[in-house]
Amino acid sequence: MRTINKITLFTLAVLFTPLIFNAQEISATMEFENAEANVAIVSNYVNALQNEDVQTMVAQLADDAKIYGLTGGPSNEMNPTQLSEYYKESFATTKHKIDENTAYAPIKVTGGINEGEWVMVWTTDTISHKETGQEIAIPAQVTCILENGKIAMMAHYYDQLNVMMSMGYTLQPPSKE
């Protein structure tokens, strides 16, 4: 009986192994039905940022969108209401100028944990203080996932140390004590 159980288990494992490994076939393409529309949505958001148009920015977001990376790192999450307040405060003192050579790349991933329709953005956001004129150029990469014609998730990646040093902060080595 023990031998029959082992043979049965081995046979089942051999039969189901291809199903397990092929169940998550992953592919990615830059050519898909919603590619242009998705880029237009993200581009509308970026243009609205430069034009200080919070209402249009938020209109590109899903009601339950999650925005990461604007306030101290990618683990800090905002919702559309918090994003709106964040930019209203920012626009009160700063002006954003988005690089005219901003690049957008639509990508559709099928299968796996990253399945969905994505738009990657590479740009430089030059922020200038409205009173002092001080400028900080922030090269950034922004990753968006779109669902049902709206941005469902947006993650900002940029060199935070560069921003802090441009603002006058200094980096000190740890004490040797």
Give the gist of this structure.
This protein has about 180 residues and is of the alpha+beta class. The protein is about 35% helix and about 35% strand.
Backbone structural class: alpha+beta
Strand content: 35-45%
How many beta-strand segments? Answer: 8
Mean pLDDT: 87
- The percent range for helix content is 25-40%
Mass-distribution shape: globular
Rg is: 23 Å
Query: Poorly predicted ranges (pLDDT <50, ≥5 residues)?
Result: none
Order of helices and strands: HEHHEEHEEEEEH
Summarize the main sheet. 8 strands, mixed
Give the N-terminus to C-terminus distance in angstroms.
68 Å
- Counting DSSP H or I runs of 4 or more residues, the number of helices is 5
Set down the secondary structure blueprint:
Blueprint: H1 2-22, E1 27-29, H2 35-50, H3 54-59, E2 61-68, E3 77-78, H4 80-93, E4 94-98, E5 103-110, E6 116-129, E7 135-147, E8 150-158, H5 160-166
Parallel strand pairs: 2-8
Antiparallel strand pairs: 1-5, 2-3, 4-6, 5-6, 6-7, 7-8
What does this structure look like?
The protein contains five helices and eight strands. Strands 1, 2, 3, 4, 5, 6, 7 and 8 form an eight-stranded mixed β-sheet that branches. It is of the alpha+beta class and 177 residues long. Strand 2 and strand 3 form a beta hairpin.
What keywords describe this structure?
single chain; 177 residues; 8-stranded mixed sheet; 36% helix; 35% strand; globular
